[in-house]
Each structure stands twice: as C-alpha cells, then as structure tokens.
Amino acid sequence: MIKVAFASNDRVNVNLHFGAADTLVVYDVSPGYAELLGVGEFVKVDMKGENRLKALSTDEETANVVDLQLSAEELERLAAKPPEDKVIAKLEFLDGCSAIYAASIGTSSIKRLIAAGIQPIIVGTGQTIEDLLNEVSLALHCGGLSWVERARAKAERTAQAPAAPRESGGGLRLITSIDELE
C-alpha cells in the first residue's frame, strides 16, 4: 500500500547517514505484510562540506553525533571545490516512497525529501528494518503515526483499482495488532 525506504548497508539494520548511504532498501508495506521492492546501490561518497565535520558515533546505544577536526588544508580544499550533489540519484530512486528511515539526515536533505513528498525519519543506529516495518504495518491497520495516515490517504486517492490479494510467498508477514505480540 505504501513504499518505505531504509538506509542500510546490511539490509537488516538502519545504520547509514542518508546523504552518504551507498545502499537504500525499499519495501511495499500493507497491513500485515511487507514485500521487498528493490535495493538501490550508490557510489560510496565521503561526507563533505558542513556535514563532513560530523560522523555517527560508534556507540550504538547513544548514536550521538561527534565533531571531527579538519586541518586548514582540508577546509581550504572544501571551500575551493564544492561537494557534488550526492542526493539527486537517491531522490530519483525514492520516487513514490512515502518515507525514508536513516541513522542521520542532513538539514538540506530533509528539506529536499519533504519537497519531494517523502517523510524523513531519523532513528537510532542499529534499529532493525523488520521492527520498523512492523511499526508501519501496525499503524496502517490501527493508526497512530500521522505520516502513515497521510501516506495511506494519498495512496488511496491515487489508486485506480483495488489492490490484488497478496501472495504469501516472498514477503514478510507483519503484525497488525498488539494481540499478535503475545
């Protein structure tokens, strides 16, 4: 029903900064079901410009952002050669997605994602994709996440025909109620 993407290099955990992500994983999510639609692989880029000064902590519990020190030479080089736009290809790949989950997303990318109609969501490093898919599935069934409500309403407005019943083959069965957690 809605497409959701994840910045992940292991296809299990959300563990990448959106702008520097070399892999994005996209699922189609409906109540009780998620199907892998595709994996986008991008040229690995080093963080540059203002975001070059920050990196994700290796402490998975806190996922804090820490400052890195740059030499005067590195600062001059960055000022002389502005960084390439690494987000364009990712925005094109995410066309039709309702949201992107990432361990970090820069301010510029957040603005561009919102302008493209994609909800940026920052989660702690190591959050599992399956847990987040379950959260979205539950919200599609029961409500509770405003961005999911908006995405569902948009999907229903643009749908021209009812969706065909899902096969139980290649996708993930997800929870649709709290009772299923027991």
Write the layout of secondary structure elements.
Elements: E1 2-7, E2 13-14, E3 23-30, E4 33-41, E5 54-56, E6 65-67, H1 72-80, H2 88-93, E7 97-102, H3 107-115, E8 119-122, E9 127-128, H4 129-142, H5 146-158, E10 172-173
Parallel strand pairs: 1-7, 7-8
Antiparallel strand pairs: 1-3, 2-9, 3-4, 4-10, 5-6
Protein name: Vanadium nitrogenase biosynthetic protein vnfX
Family: Belongs to the NifX/NifY family.
Pfam families: Nitro_FeMo-Co
Give structural notes.
Keywords: Nitrogen fixation. Pfam families: Nitro_FeMo-Co (PF02579). This is Vanadium nitrogenase biosynthetic protein vnfX. It is a single chain. The protein is an alpha+beta fold and 182 residues long. The protein has a single domain, classed as 2-Layer Sandwich (Nucleotidyltransferase, domain 5), CATH 3.30.420. The protein has 5 helices and 10 strands, in the order E-E-E-E-E-E-H-H-E-H-E-E-H-H-E. The strands form 3 sheets. The protein has a 6-stranded mixed sheet. The longest helix is centred in the last third of the chain and has 14 residues. 30% of the residues are buried.
Instruction: Please identify the top-level CATH class.
Output: Alpha Beta
Question: Please, how many helices?
Answer: 5
Q: Give the topology string: H per helix, E per strand.
A: EEEEEEHHEHEEHHE
Computed Rg = 18 Å
- Number of separate strands: 10
Give the CATH architecture: 2-Layer Sandwich
Mean pLDDT: 80
Low-pLDDT segments: 51-67
Query: What's the shape?
Result: elongated
Biggest pleated sheet: 6 strands, mixed
Q: Which fold name is given in CATH as the topology? A: Nucleotidyltransferase, domain 5
Domain Dinitrogenase iron-molybdenum cofactor biosynthesis: 58-136
Protein name: Vanadium nitrogenase biosynthetic protein vnfX
Family: Belongs to the NifX/NifY family.
Keywords: Nitrogen fixation
